[in-house]
């Protein structure tokens, strides 16, 4: 099923315009659009298991069981956000596929900026606009010995969410472009820009430009270098100062007991 047809609405993403803009690029070579899904990542994973090709895009106006990092729920009300997943099958060493999360964060941030919204990255996969998180990246990897990796990259963004679109417990912390600027943003333009950037970044990393990716990420992630942070990972929390990224995308943190490399965990920036 390619290009699922639905009735038009001014509040919906213009899937025809997005697909036209992508042209013959790898990303979006197959493009599926839904009014509602439980999770775009789950649906893309099912397509991967059924042999759908690399570059397949799954887009939904709403998710009823959207997923965030560490098993959290990503609230995905209809008609206000961007909920999209992309299937990739990179021919790269399995121990390097974690770089694709960073790649998606760079593509999403550059796409937002192309559309006029100056966002930033918080390592490893949060997207920040103003002072609040508006989005994130969720990578679902299937790694089989001797076979290319199968990666489903999910991107969730709060675009035109209002305060009442979030659960009450998130009212003080949730962010969106509209909440920050006071005006609605063009979801079609933003999605198009992000997918074009994703195709560009993926083409580059397949060509071996991993160092360039790390440099780009560092340029969009102020907290990656020289920030005083508290880290919550396995074991006791610790503090330190960020010292850039390794070639594999791990965050380097200088602590009182030496340099540590963080591949996953919660990092908060300390004031002062």
- Output mean pLDDT: 90
Low-confidence stretches: 1-10
How is the biggest beta sheet arranged? 7 strands, mixed
Order of H and E elements: HEHEEHEEEEHHHEEEEE
Q: Radius of gyration, Cα only, in angstroms? A: 18 Å
- The number of helical segments is 6
3D shape: globular
**What would you call the structural class?**
alpha+beta
Annotation, overall tally of beta strands: 12
Order the strands across the largest sheet as they lie in space: 1-2-3-7-6-5-4
The helix fraction, in percent, is 25-40%
What is the count of distinct domains?
2
CATH topology of the largest domain: BirA Bifunctional Protein, domain 2
> How much of the sequence is in beta strands?
25-35%
Look at the structure and give the CATH class of the largest domain. Alpha Beta
State the fourth-level CATH superfamily of the largest domain.
Answer: Bira Bifunctional Protein, Domain 2
Alpha-carbon distance between the two ends? 54 Å
Please tell me the CATH architecture of the largest domain by its name.
Answer: 2-Layer Sandwich
Description:
It is a single chain. The protein has 272 residues and is of the alpha+beta class. 26% of the residues lie in helices and 27% in strands. The protein is built from 6 helices and 12 strands. The strands form 2 sheets. It has a 7-stranded mixed β-sheet, sandwiched between helices. Helix 3 (99-114) crosses helix 6 (210-220). It is globular and about 55 Å long. The chain starts with 14 loop residues before the first helix and ends with a strand. The model is unreliable at 1-10 (pLDDT under 50).
């Amino acid at each position: 099923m390619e290009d699922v047809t639905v009735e038009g609405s001014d509040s919906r993403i213009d899937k025809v315009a997005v697909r036209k803009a992508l042209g013959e690029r790898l990303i979006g070579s197959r493009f599926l659009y839904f009014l509602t899904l439980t999770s775009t990542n789950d649906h893309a994973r099912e397509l991967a298991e059924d042999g759908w090709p690399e570059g397949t895009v799954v887009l939904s106006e709403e998710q009823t069981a959207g997923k965030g990092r560490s098993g959290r729920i990503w609230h995905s009300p209809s008609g206000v956000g961007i909920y999209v997943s992309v299937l990739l099958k990179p021919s790269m060493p399995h121990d390097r596929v974690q770089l694709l999360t960073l790649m998606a964060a760079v593509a999403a941030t550059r796409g937002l900026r192309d559309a006029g919204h100056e966002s930033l990255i918080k390592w490893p996969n949060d997207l920040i606009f103003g002072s609040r998180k508006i989005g994130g990246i969720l990578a679902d990897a299937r790694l089989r010995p001797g076979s290319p990796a199968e990666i489903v990259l999910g991107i969730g963004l709060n675009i035109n969410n209002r305060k009442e679109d979030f659960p009450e417990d998130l009212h003080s912390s949730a962010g969106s472009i509209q909440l920050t600027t006071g005006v609605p943003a063009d979801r079609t333009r933003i999605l198009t820009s992000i997918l074009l950037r994703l195709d560009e970044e993926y083409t580059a990393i397949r060509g071996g430009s991993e160092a360039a990716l790390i440099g780009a990420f560092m340029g969009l992630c102020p907290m990656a270098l020289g920030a005083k942070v508290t880290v919550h990972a396995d074991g006791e929390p610790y503090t330190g100062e960020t010292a850039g990224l390794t070639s594999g995308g791990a965050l380097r943190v200088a602590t009182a007991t030496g340099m540590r490399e963080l591949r996953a965990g919660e990092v908060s920036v300390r004031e002062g």
